[in-house]
Amino acid sequence: MKDKYQIVLSGVGGQGLIACGSLVAEAAIIYEDKYATLTSSYGVETRGTFTKSDIIISGKEIFYPEVIKEDIVLSLAQVAYDRYIDKIDSDAILIYDSSLVTQIKDSKAKQYGFPFTDLARELGNITVANVIALGAIIKMSGILSQESVLNAIKDKYEEKPKVMELNTKALEKGLEIAAII
Amino acid sequence: MKDKYQIVLSGVGGQGLIACGSLVAEAAIIYEDKYATLTSSYGVETRGTFTKSDIIISGKEIFYPEVIKEDIVLSLAQVAYDRYIDKIDSDAILIYDSSLVTQIKDSKAKQYGFPFTDLARELGNITVANVIALGAIIKMSGILSQESVLNAIKDKYEEKPKVMELNTKALEKGLEIAAII
Amino acid sequence: MKGSNKVRFMQGNEAMAEGAFAAGARFYAGYPITPSSEIAEISARRLPQLGGVYVQMEDELGSMAAIIGASAAGKKSFTATSGPGFSLMQENLGVAVMAEVPCVIINVQRSGPSTGLATKPAQGDFMQSRWGTHGDHGIIVISPSTVEDCYYLMIKAFNFSEKYRTPVVFLADEIIGHLQERVVINDIDPEDIVTRELPSCDPEDYKPFEIGESGIAPLAYYGSEYIVRLTSSTHDESGYSNSKPENADKFIRHYTDKIEKNKKDITIVRKYNLEDADYAIITFGCTTRSALEAVEILKAEGKKVGILQLVTLWPFADDEVLEVCNQVKGVVVPELNLGQLIREVERVNKKNIPIVGVNKVNSLSIHPNEIIDKIREVEKCQR
Amino acid sequence: MKGSNKVRFMQGNEAMAEGAFAAGARFYAGYPITPSSEIAEISARRLPQLGGVYVQMEDELGSMAAIIGASAAGKKSFTATSGPGFSLMQENLGVAVMAEVPCVIINVQRSGPSTGLATKPAQGDFMQSRWGTHGDHGIIVISPSTVEDCYYLMIKAFNFSEKYRTPVVFLADEIIGHLQERVVINDIDPEDIVTRELPSCDPEDYKPFEIGESGIAPLAYYGSEYIVRLTSSTHDESGYSNSKPENADKFIRHYTDKIEKNKKDITIVRKYNLEDADYAIITFGCTTRSALEAVEILKAEGKKVGILQLVTLWPFADDEVLEVCNQVKGVVVPELNLGQLIREVERVNKKNIPIVGVNKVNSLSIHPNEIIDKIREVEKCQR
Amino acid sequence: MNVISINRNRCKRCGICIEFCPVKLFDTEIDGTPIPQRIEKCTGCKLCELRCPDIAIKVEVIKDERQ
Amino acid sequence: MNVISINRNRCKRCGICIEFCPVKLFDTEIDGTPIPQRIEKCTGCKLCELRCPDIAIKVEVIKDERQ
Amino acid sequence: MPKMKMEDYLIEKKLPFFWCAGCGDGIVLSSILKSFANLGYDRKNTVVVTGIGCWGKADDYINTHTFHGTHGRALAFATGIKLANPKLNVIVLMGDGDGATIGGNHLIHAARRNVDITAILVNNFNYGMTGGQYSGTTPEESYTITSRYGHIEPSFDLCNLVEAAGAPYVARGSVYHVVQLQKFIEEGLQKKGFSFIEVISTCPTHFGRLNGMKKAPDIMRWIKDNSVSIAAAEKLSPEELEKKFVLGKFADRDIPDYSTKYQAIIDKCTAKAAKGGVTIER
Amino acid sequence: MPKMKMEDYLIEKKLPFFWCAGCGDGIVLSSILKSFANLGYDRKNTVVVTGIGCWGKADDYINTHTFHGTHGRALAFATGIKLANPKLNVIVLMGDGDGATIGGNHLIHAARRNVDITAILVNNFNYGMTGGQYSGTTPEESYTITSRYGHIEPSFDLCNLVEAAGAPYVARGSVYHVVQLQKFIEEGLQKKGFSFIEVISTCPTHFGRLNGMKKAPDIMRWIKDNSVSIAAAEKLSPEELEKKFVLGKFADRDIPDYSTKYQAIIDKCTAKAAKGGVTIER
Ligand SMILES: Cc1ncc(C[n+]2csc(CCOP(=O)(O)OP(=O)(O)O)c2C)c(N)n1
Ligand SMILES: Cc1ncc(C[n+]2csc(CCOP(=O)(O)OP(=O)(O)O)c2C)c(N)n1
Ligand code: SF4
Ligand code: SF4
Ligand code: SF4
Ligand code: SF4
Ligand code: SF4
Ligand code: SF4
Ligand SMILES: [Mg+2]
Ligand SMILES: [Mg+2]
Asked: The complex's ipTM?
């Protein structure tokens, strides 16, 4: 496993990317005793426009908290996909929501599409598309163990059992579909 | 005549020292083509407490506008007298209002007392004590011509003939009493 | 007013107001504060006579806002205040920077910090006048040392403001504001009055922040054929909010660059006795007068001491100060504060000559002898 | 909170709030503003749990006033804001200086000037934090570069504030304020919490501004046996208005001296890799992280580049900066502004080594490569 | 019959027009976009247009010439 | 009879007590200092004391024991 | 003059608005622009001044002269504009935070001073822009991100306040009652003197979400259900009125405006000056 | 407790006051200190907060805890003091410039927020301290150093404004009507919640001099002649009322004060915390 992972979660405002990023970071920090940073970039005009969160996970202290070279990019919207597809290197992977990203381009990086939003709708709540995606990322990259993320979900929704259950299911769904590839 | 005169008008708030100082300065500037500066020192607490105006008259441009070495000091109150009496040099003169300054001390400088306030009362208005004093100063020091000061008074009270008359009388009274000495 | 080309006896505050009117100012919004209130009082009396408007706002925040609004509506505008009010104006001063609206802010400095001593002089806002509002910006600050300065430099202040579409701070002090002295008021040649460049393009093409040939964007006024969009947010050339990095970079640099790059034009310094001086006094505002008196006294002793008076305080006269530092054996910097200007002199000083401050904060002016004493001290630094 | 000595994932703004509570703060008054609002939101939720009070005032002027009042009434108090609000606080910041009332003001810097770009980072208030309020004064300014700093340095900030009876500015930036990262929260030893010295004299003899042995006047609180008279006017030891020159001199100097003379105690700097460095990066706040990353990269290339991180920004670490300037061949000063810190480095630099800035105002952070490029540039300055 | 047109680029699917049409003539797509149905019921009151926060709906009232 | 005392150090000769004493019992010195006269008329209303801006006048009401 | 349409004042290329789905701001903006059209406003003679907040972003879509100032100070900028050129139509757009919390002092003084400005304050009961903190109009007991335990502060009755400060025209409308709202706006624009129109509006994203009205129609209905006319309000007890929005016109009186009175002074002074020498009254 | 006298709260050694002859400030100060005495205030539990102005210098003569803040901000400082320690008696002294012109926003918000403070505003119709410029209460058509051609701005009816802002106790007295004034001050001090007392007062030096009332008794008489009670005012026409001072109590209602409500939240939170873990309402 690499010593340092640089992950970008991208999409549009309102998709819960920060919340999702913080699950990853919490899992890394609290349950795997790693270092992690999370930064987000947003403007006043973000409602519905491009947003991203940079997550860095490392065994050592992290200095510059922005992603310099992407290892994993998640794109939950076409604008987000378009921004990264030409940019990222061949050793990176790009995962996108095939329910929303419809115009696919060639890229140096490997890319994988999953219908996260459709799957989320099946689970009864499209807001968990991000967590399904998270499951997929974990499965594919191995950056974190499933337990860590499950524990992070449990901590986060301690007082809201229903939300916890939904998110757990979403994570499992992500792990499941990524296993299929 | 000296090239530079440093004059202090001292007293308490409300005695019209600044107005009086500005008559001197206007006379010097407008009617004798000299340079003159006027600065005053007062605090928020001045109502009834010590105030002074520094006037410098010179044939050349004046830099530092505060009196460094007094040539003439006018003291219209005991507090003002007490401040200057021990301080001023032997070549200076101190003129005080003997109606108000009652505790007289020895000094290096020559000192002259006149009952300015009593004289002003005789003229019907104690507020012109300062102008009477001004007349005395001019007469004794010769720093300015009578006409210059009279003209300055005329300019100042152009639109208030009664006030002009009162002030003119006051000036004349000052010139008169100083002549007596 | 007794007419023009006349010798007059005037107060500094009065001369500032009259200078503003002579520069074309026809709008004053302010909130009274000692020792600047005479400027408000004179403006209240004089402006309606000139067809202009005086309005006393509810506070200094509103005063600063109102002069910006009035200027955008086409009237040359100004306000006057002192320390506490100047602090309150800082937020909206930034609006004038960002929206590039010309205006003049007079600060007649008094003894601080905070409420301090309202009737006493100080020069404690030297640094604040440059850095008081948040974020990067440039600003022009001018400081008078005579009552005549109050009049003529005020015209310069308005001219710079109009020419560079920027707020100008007129940093006076209680001594100069309340000083009354002889002034000669000349007729101002209309050529010497600068008024902002108006657009000449097709009204449809007008962009209020499009930097023209002069390096400054022409500024139309509200009510003209040219639609004017002004904003305190980071904006593009048209005045729409814009958060693109390139755009932010361009404009934020512009606010500083338009001042710094025109330093030559903006910088006013005065040199006295500097030609063959061994020592120099670097000074501004009221303290210049103490320095001049000191130099006169020293001259009588045969000492060669010169003065560099900074009339333009900001942008800082790096070149002129450096030149002096390179020439003399030591510099004395008298200030009615605990050492503000001296930091800039130290920054510029490359040859490590001794630089000594005369710093006074007891609410009295600096006596010429205090400067003389320091000159002697600096002399001793020389081995 | 999950308890103490715990590893946590926390946001900078959250850590600042929790740090304040750990320092004993029990009163927050503020007015929301991006990017600091989380501090208000967390305080609104947490303070009543701790028996403390959160109040949203009508504006930042009132917020600053309220924390001064609350502190005088005995509660450790703080507020949080960003550029526009910080500008509005300047007048009352001066009250805290003059009345010597401890309090902490957090400024999470955003892109300016004026309204600017509310969600974007900058370090444009470095100079303002020192000189923003009118008149002479001293002030302590501290700047964090990690989320852990937000917590632990906040405790320091309160400690300095209490120890020196002075306002302390906690100058963060959007990057650190919104950064979420790993922190280890340890139990704070009660010994490490400083609380203002209370008077111990006979209540009849108490004078709220009488400087004691420690160099600082003990401060009683409203409601205690000791009558406390506080004022924004120049005052004597008892807190009565006083316009005597000796008195003004004494106190105005005191506000600066109590900070400058305790520089040793107040100055916090961090040195990385400086031992045998050929070049140095002098930095503060978020930019430190870019510098650290740059140094790591350069290290791999075999270059000896060190970092002097200023944690205490003001009083300025003249000695530490001078030491570095005397050691290295060149200095790079990266800042998210057009060159503020660099002016101070230039001032202190005596050997005329090259000092180069990396100045960025496009609302993005400084990429490590931008620093590396400048290091290479400075290398070339060496013949 | 009146013409009710919806600018899909502007419409944010807030549901206001749908909810407060006095004659409830809108149906919705799954994403919430209003679909004018039962157009014959439209009274031409224009409340949907006036209350649309996004200037996304326009009602053109066609006067019935026969009356 | 009531005792009316004036603190000459505090009194600023504003004339308020003189003007608004319901029984007009004050005369004045040339400099404006109030001189209580006709003290027998004093009703003890204390309005002079209450309205004095300088805490310069005190009225001690002596109850007439005979009544 | 050709008949004008709303679109003549709208910068269509900037649409869709940046506001959230269901935000009342867009409704008020349309009403204003329609009023401009109905009154045939010349956009080159019209200045829209905005504060900072979600509503404060309205100027981005308006085709007249604009000034986007600092948070809370819009009326002060506008005062300068209007006094410098009394011929301009000056319209000020403010949020409840902007206009009545941080900007409260300018509001009452502008009302008192009676400068001929039309102020339209959109009251969505919170600071939308910064994430939903409480403002001076947040209803007691409601929830915001900074009053999570229930808000304890009473809220302003802004119309009452502004009327007490001296404004000649004061009205309250709502984004639900759009026809009435537009009438108030047109009246306000036409009024010579300071006119103030408070608009009860929606912030589904923050105020709505935290108070159980996540969807825009929910808050619209809440506004509808809790609104009463002035006439109806008079019949309610103070308790019944407590949480109601009283809609209607509270003041409509004629008071000479500032610029008219100032012009009289200028005329007097300049006439005297022309006759040689100005004498000061006192 | 021993019976207290005015002198127990007065710093006699500082007398004579710095105020001008005939200035109303000293009359109000005496009334306040007498009220402290009558209510047996413990000076160690009392904080007097002042603004900047002639009246703002009152703290120099008062023997309690004091805070002399910046111009216009006294109520904001006082809010911090009171909320930090609700047991203190907090009294705020402000001028008309201080409290109602530059400080108007703090005034209306303090009134709304209902912090238990007693605010005593001395209205002398101008800025005494800085030389007599007009303020937000300067009567229309009167003369000041900055309205030499006659003032054109309407003035605030401060009691009306503060009542509209929500204050539970509002009264207006005058330095002529000293007995009534002291009654209002005592009531205000005793009122739990924000109480506001406006005092019509004299500034012979500036306002008086410029308006033909150079001597203190002249302005005192002007106040006397132009004052009417609320009851009498009701019988007057608006025109007749125009330049009158209506003296009396305008509001006296019971509204729970801020600290009481805040304490309830603290109690709830800390009780929950004691039971282990705090849950947030929403
Ligand atoms: C001096 C200052 N303080 C705070 C802010 C941050 N701020 C921006 S908008 C806003 C509140 C907006 O609320 P409101 O005026 O009600 O408008 P809305 O967003 O609800 O339309 C605040 C607090 C600022 N920009 N400037
Ligand atoms: C921010 C600020 N602006 C202006 C001043 C100047 N100033 C001091 S007192 C005052 C007005 C005082 O008027 P008022 O409050 O009515 O009190 P009065 O003197 O009449 O009792 C002013 C404008 C100041 N100290 N601070
Ligand atoms: S015009 Fe009226 S009836 Fe027709 S769709 Fe719109 S709201 Fe419904
Ligand atoms: S009201 Fe407008 S934005 Fe909302 S759903 Fe209808 S058309 Fe769309
Ligand atoms: S107590 Fe009454 S009657 Fe007696 S002197 Fe005083 S005012 Fe006159
Ligand atoms: S009222 Fe007081 S100050 Fe005035 S004259 Fe009478 S005793 Fe003297
Ligand atoms: S946050 Fe609220 S006020 Fe702002 S745009 Fe969204 S709904 Fe409107
Ligand atoms: S100037 Fe006016 S308010 Fe001030 S002390 Fe004198 S009379 Fe009183
Ligand atoms: Mg709002
Ligand atoms: Mg007043």
From this structure: 0.97
